[in-house]
Amino acid sequence: MMSNVIEIVNFKLAETTQAADFAAANDALQQFLNNQTGVLYRSLAKQQSDNIYVDVVYFATMADAKRVQDAFYENEICQQFAKLIEKESVILEHYDVVSQTPCDA
Question: Is the pTM above the cut of 0.85?
């Protein structure tokens, strides 16, 4: 049985990134993800005390996660999002889901 996969990306915004620019780039990235097969759910959160974010995406399979990751590096919208992030701060990890409850978002 294939399990869903969670991609967790921790990152910090670049010092020169303005909140409005990041919000617009995030909206565009969300539209990109909405059009990708295998993306089940995404949530972006920010620590209250500083500029550290966590981006959590649920995928149907690891193959979907890898395909979307590859598309991210080739897509101009995604690259505009990436330019706003401090590259050295990025930590990307994948996890196999072993238990979950329904999400009624």
Answer: yes
**CA distances from residue 81 to 13, 23, 61 in whole angstroms, order as listed:** 10, 9, 24
CA–CA separation, 70 and 11 (whole Å)? 19
Task: For residues 3 and 44, give the distance between their C-alpha atoms in angstroms, rounded to a whole number.
Answer: 22
User: Residue 75 has which token pair?
Assistant: 């897509």
Task: Retrieve residue 80's tokens.
Answer: 């505009």
pLDDT in tens, 62-103: 999 999 999 999 999 999 999 999 999 999 999 999 988 776
Tokens 């209250």 belong to: 48
